[in-house]
Amino acid sequence: MKQIxxxxxxxSRKANAAIVSIGACSFDENGIQQKFYTTVNLESCxxxxxxxxxxxxxxWNSQPAEARAAWQVANAPPLExxxxxxxxxxxxxxxxxxxxxxxxxxxxxxxxxxxxxxxGQEPPWPYWTHRCVRTLKNIxxxxxxxxxxxxxxxxxxxxxxxxxxxxxxxxxxxxx
Length: 176
Ligand SMILES: [Mg+2]
Fold this sequence. Notes:
Shape: globular
Number of helices: 7
Oligomer: single chain
Helix content: 25-40%
Distance between the termini: 6 Å
Bound molecules: magnesium ion
Largest sheet: 5 strands, mixed
């Protein structure tokens, strides 16, 4: 199975959160393979009824400018275009159901499911391939340093993928 790590940056912690960026990478025991990154136009999410909460807006305002700059761009594509690009990227990586990792799936992958529903589409993976970084790192604690900009969706996804690879390699484990 292809392994895919996804991280979102959002404007809410609810399942129907508005999304501002999607970062993802495919990986195996040898490390990171292909990468994906897109910003998302926030207004397009709001127009589709997705959620923005003030506490998350305030939290973003307290973050370093470089983290905000990753998604505060003038030409962010609307949600439908961003999700279509993400779907196309997943399909370019694998034609069979990928193992879909996130930290954890109940945040990023559930928010993506709502976003797909908002544009009238199904997510391009089945619900039963969700994989949880939080579970793995809790059961098998491993010292790890974040690489890149914290709360940059692609840097977060790559750091999480590298952590999973590190945990697997340290114990001689293979992906199914
Ligand atoms: Mg993140």
